[in-house]
Amino acid sequence: MTFKISTRIRAALTCTFAIAVLAACSQKKDEIITYVPCPRVSILADASELTQFKSGAGRDVTDVEYHGKITEVDFSCAIDRKKDQIIAKADIWIEVEMGPAAPLSNPDFQVFLALTEAGEQIIDKSLFSLRVNFKDNARRAVARQKIKNIKFPMNGPVPVEGHDVFIGFQLTPAQVSYNRTKTVR
Q1: Does residue 64 contact residue 183 with C-beta atoms inside 8 Å?
Q2: Using a CB cutoff of 8 Å and minimum separation of 24, what contacts does 152-155 make?
Q3: Short-list 74, 55, 53, CA closest to 65
Q4: Cα dist. 45→26, 27, 49, 161 in Å?
Q5: Cβ 90 vs Cβ 147: under 8 Å
Q6: What are the residue boundaries of the structural domains of the chain, listed by start?
Q7: Does residue 109 contact residue 129 with C-beta atoms inside 8 Å?
Q8: For residue 35, how many other CB atoms are within 10 A of its CB?
Q9: Is residue 8 very low, low, confident or very high in pLDDT (cuts 50, 70, 90)?
Q10: Is the sign of the CA dihedral 106, 55, 49, 67 positive or negative?
Q11: Buried b (16+ CB within 10 A) or exposed e, 108-141
Q12: Does residue 71 carry a pLDDT above 80?
């Protein structure tokens, strides 16, 4: 019995020491990063979908190149108090369907992340390109984009209060108008 206890104690001490060494190595001496709750994150309704038409005046179903929809967003935040900024990571999933007018290519879509104060004033906005790869003869694809080191300025001691993050496709005014007027599918 004594042998089992001393082996367990030795194992526990070894694990504790290893964890302490790893923790010490993982953080730089002058770096002060704290993981915190994120501001409220929402997919902006008017920019949650994108319908891209071929060039020209036509706007019916035969003129659609691509229809995309942001389906999911995972977001995590940390604060770098030394640099007075929020550092975030996002995973964004979009589902895209080729329309009848789609060229034979793997399109890129622009997605934005905007930090707002009280849901109104934009404090910071970043654009990211998201490539969709259609495999074989597939007409539908799902793409996931991991975005790291999204940096937003931090205003005040409690950065999440009164702030929102909105995510959406970067649309033209005509695409926003189309999204607002189209019928529900």
Answers
A1: no
A2: 152/85, 152/86, 152/88, 152/115, 152/123, 152/124, 153/84, 153/85, 153/86, 153/115, 153/123, 153/124, 154/79, 154/81, 154/84, 154/85, 154/86, 155/117, 155/123
A3: 53
A4: 39, 39, 8, 22
A5: yes
A6: 30-181
A7: yes
A8: 10
A9: very low
A10: negative
A11: ebebbbbbbeeeeeeeeeeebebebebeeeeeeb
A12: yes
How far is residue 153's CA from residue 121's CA, in Å, rounded to a whole number?
A: 14
Residue 31 — pLDDT band, cuts 50, 70, 90?
A: low
CA atoms within 13 A on the CB side of 157: 0
- In this prediction the pTM is 0.73
The pLDDT confidence band at residue 136, using thresholds 50, 70 and 90, is confident
Q: Examine the pLDDT at 6 and tell me if it is beyond 60.
A: no
Q: What is the pLDDT of residues 76-103, one digit of tens each?
A: 888 887 887 878 899 999 999 999 999 8
**For residues 46 and 173, is the Cβ–Cβ distance under 8 A?**
no
Q: What value does the CA radius of gyration of the chain take, rounded to a whole number of Å? A: 23
